[in-house]
Amino acid sequence: MKILHIVPSFGLGGMEKVICSIINHSPLESAHFILPLDGEVQASSWIQNSNTQLISFTRPMKRKDFFFALYHKIKECKPDILMSYNWGGTDAIWLGRLVGTRKIYHNEHGFNVDEAKSTAFRKDLIRFFLYRLASKIIVVSHELKSMMATKFKLDSNKVILIPNGINTNHFCPNSYERECIRKELGFGTTEFVIGFSGRLDPVKNFFLMASIFEECLSKSSDFQLLIVGEGEERENIQKEFKKRNLNKNVHLVGPQKDVLPYLRAMDLYLLTSFREQMPLTILEAMAVGLPVAATNVGEIPYMIDHLQNGIIFERMEDPKKIARMILDLNESTKYPLMQKSAREKVVSCFQENLMLATYFSLLQNLN
């Protein structure tokens, strides 16, 4: 069985981790082909399945030339199943139909910054028609599933909700590694490290993160901020923290192939996004035993139990109020219980094998 994944990009992100998980655990008779539309292939370092091939693609500037080039790449591959991803991959749906691909599964994991607060009418109109050409639409959140029914009028049997999952044997606490990486980063044993990992993208709302951290630091000099990742916002982030005179307590360590040691160095994971669906980084952080403070968007209310294993706040919440909750958490005797509860939630609800079983059941049905 040949499966072609057409992705907007194949960088170091949560969606790419899910794709790699599917590929790495696929049955031996499955051959996977990955076509990144922007040429980015960093996530290929996560692939352990030798029956996988990257397809080189140089995106033409003109739309007509792009359609023509992508059509021929799909035709050359002759996939049994085509998997397209997010807005950037939607053209693969109709082009795949032109080629004659029988099974096309479109995956929606979230939205770009231009749709951080609401989806765009023009794109929604295109989605309305293209979704109908797909065999199934796979979504990762209840919000997206509801949107497919209300906004795009899709039948419930056409939409499949597959929550993200992770390997909790791999993502787990490790006190020795925690001590080593904190020492390497220069963190003291009493310092409270707030952390973030992921793409440095405008949708993550780093201005709010800076405001929250500034408030925390104004109450205690023991706070440190650790940011793992790379992206277009890096320069703006550096400028913002410099303007607030917070640079000494902020650590940008760039992209990391293995984020696990850095998660273990943290005491709290902070996500301030305008919009998310089901961030894999939250699951990874919780599995390591980190309480998570995050905005009330997408699937996050299903992932975090407020004040049991984390903190949920609104996008327009006063940074002082959020900082107060973090300070209270740091000072609370319930913190160890929140750590335990965070890991237990992921172990009980978001295991990788549950996610994979659903994907493989779908992929193996070629009828």
Could you characterize what this model shows?
The protein has 367 residues and is of the alpha/beta class. The chain has two domains: 2-165 and 352-363, Rossmann fold (3-Layer(aba) Sandwich); 175-349, Rossmann fold (3-Layer(aba) Sandwich), CATH 3.40.50.2000. It is 40% helix and 17% strand. The protein is built from 14 helices and 13 strands. The strands form two sheets. Strands 3-2-1-4-5-6-7 form a seven-stranded parallel beta sheet. Helix 1 (14-24) links the parallel strand 1 and strand 2 (31-36). The radius of gyration is 21 Å and the shape is globular. The two termini are 13 Å apart.
Radius of gyration: 21 Å
**Strand order in space, largest sheet:** 3-2-1-4-5-6-7
- H/E series: EHEEHEHEHEHEHEHEHEHEHEHEHHH
Residue-averaged pLDDT: 95
Distance between the termini: 13 Å
User: How many beta-strand runs?
Assistant: 13
Structural class by sheet pairing and helices? alpha/beta
Give the low-pLDDT segments: none
Summarize this entry quickly.
This protein has 367 residues and is of the alpha/beta class. Helices cover 40% and strands 17% of the residues. The strands form two sheets. Strands 3-2-1-4-5-6-7 form a seven-stranded parallel sheet.
List keywords for this structure.
single chain; alpha/beta; Rossmann fold; 2 domains; 6-stranded parallel β-sheet; 14 helices; 13 strands
Helices and strands in order, then pairings?
Elements: E1 2-7, H1 14-24, E2 31-36, E3 52-54, H2 63-77, E4 81-85, H3 91-99, E5 103-108, H4 121-130, E6 136-139, H5 142-150, E7 159-161, H6 175-185, E8 192-197, H7 206-219, E9 223-228, H8 234-243, E10 250-254, H9 260-265, E11 268-271, H10 280-288, E12 292-295, H11 300-303, E13 310-313, H12 319-331, H13 335-349, H14 352-363
